[in-house]
User: Fold this.
Amino acid sequence: MKFMKITDDTTMLHNSSRLGFCLSVVLLVATLMSQSTSLYAHGKEENNRAVNIRLHVTALPRTFSIDETQTLELSHAYLSTFSVQFFPCNKTSDYSLENNNPKWLDWFISSAYANHGVRFTKPTQIPIRKHVNLLESNTTEVGEFMLPIGHYCEMNFTIAHPGGKATQTPIKDLGRYSVYVAGIVDEREVSIQSTYAYGKNIPINISIQRPTAGSNATQNLHIYVDAKPALSSVDFTLPNHKMARQLFLALPNQVSVKTDN
Assistant:
């Protein structure tokens, strides 16, 4: 019986230690969570600034020359933006869908990537899931985001269909396309249709600045897209997938960024 008593005491001591350890863990987690409410992925709140982001699209003309002898008359032109991501100058970007030496099969990214493979876990990853009518000038209020203060030298621009149904458009199932262009070149009907995604890193030169003392004013950041030079570079005698490839490769180069200081 004495042996059983020692065993019971030992068991009680062991259970007490486990309970104490569990309580310590719970208290530690609670403390860390309370401290983290004012933190962001890149540091404390005072190291970030509220930035209002706008997307500006320059309207394509309905008719324009694509080379010295050919004229393109557009009936429809839609682009699906998916996201942008900003990279500080002191950090090498680790996110790009671009293949620097692309073969035509290699550069295609499955449409599933855009809808199921992307997680916006960093403060500099900005979702812009929008069908853009390139025949109309428009400005989209993307939203206000907390971005880390600093200088940025690179931005990833990703084109991909955002999923869902596109409303108020004459194109059936437009929501499944990342790019949709239709028109006439020299009395011949042409179209570019793609459901794939493509992203490319482009050079930028912007700064997210610390607010002046006593001011918490939001900084404005503008993203501009002008698709005309990209569309003018397409050879409309090629098969659809090759025309889409030419357009995808050229479009990010017609994207620019600036901030209001």
